Amino acid sequence: MRKAVVILALLLAPAAVWAQGTLRVLSVRGPVEWKAPSGRSFAPVTATTQQVIQVGDELRTGADGEIYLELPDRSYVVVSENSKFTVEDYWSGNLRSIINLMVGRARFYIQKLGGRPNPYSVTTPTALIAVRGTVFDVIVYPGLDTEVQCLEGQVRVENIALGLGGRDAILDPGYKTLVRPNENPTMPVRLTAELPNRKATIRLKTEPNGDMNGNGSTDIVAHDNDRRNRISNPPAGPNSGTSDNTQRAKPTLTFP
Fold it and tell me: What backbone torsions phi and psi does residue 46 show, to the nearest 5 degrees?
């Protein structure tokens, strides 16, 4: 009986963490700042002083700043430099929002539950991204244009303002789309192709850095064409939720 209670507690642990709306900080590199919903000013974030991020918290990364966040199911969010986002935790239909990326770039590594990715979503000022894929990038430019790149699995993208009245875009691996304010997502194109009439730019990383221990980074997605702006892998370690198993770090997904 006692053993059964322990097993049940372990199974319910992720749900309990989600009820509290927390994300765990795995590592921080460079300038990263945090502000609570009721706060008036930002404070520095370090892996030792700020281990947990709550719903409603706002974070921003400076030049060469980067933060790794872990979800309760050991999915990861890697937010690159010159980015700003808030942590979210609310349901929209059958999807649960992770973060609202207001500007900058983030890469998502989503774990599978029952053979499919967990039902998460990501929002930006212009886009709603439904997590049907396991690895994808979201880039929000200063003009609020949102670029979504699918690296593995599948990703569904729609304009958050148009809702059911708009048209969504389904991205297969190696494809991307652009969402502008009050416009449907553009027709998906290859990662190597130019997106039509992108109006704004954002300075991203020129080279991926090493991990917190000074080790060099190894790319998870071997065929990512944007090598100069690629986000490095989540750091490996006993407390990081990662392992040497390449299938664990690089999940795959097959749809019927």
Answer: -130, 160
List b or e across 112-146, with b for residues whose CB sees 16 or more CB atoms inside 10 angstroms: eeeeebbebbbbbbbbbbbbbbbbbbbbbbebbbb
Residue 160: how many CA atoms within 13 Å on its side-chain side?
Answer: 17
Its sign, for the CA torsion 216, 220, 224, 230, is negative
List the chain domain ranges: 22-249
Q: Which residue, chain included where needed, has tokens 């499919």? A: 116
If we measure between CA atoms, which residue out of 142, 222, 130 comes closest to residue 177?
130
Residue-wise pLDDT for 198-212, tens only, equals 554 444 443 334 443
* CA pair distance 255, 116, nearest whole angstrom: 8
Tell me what pLDDT residue 92 has.
61
192: exposed, middle or buried (Cβ count in 10 Å: 0-12, 13-18, 19+): exposed
Q: In this predicted structure, what is the pLDDT of residue 131?
A: 83
Cα distance between the two ends of the chain: 40
Q: What pLDDT, on a 0 to 100 scale, did the predictor assign at position 231?
A: 53
CATH number assigned to the domain covering 22-249: 2.60.120.1440
- The structure tokens listed for 249 are 């770090």
Torsion angles phi and psi, residue 228, rounded to 5: -70, -30
CA dihedral 136, 141, 147, 152 (to 10 degrees): -10
The residue that leads in pLDDT, 138 or 165, is: 138
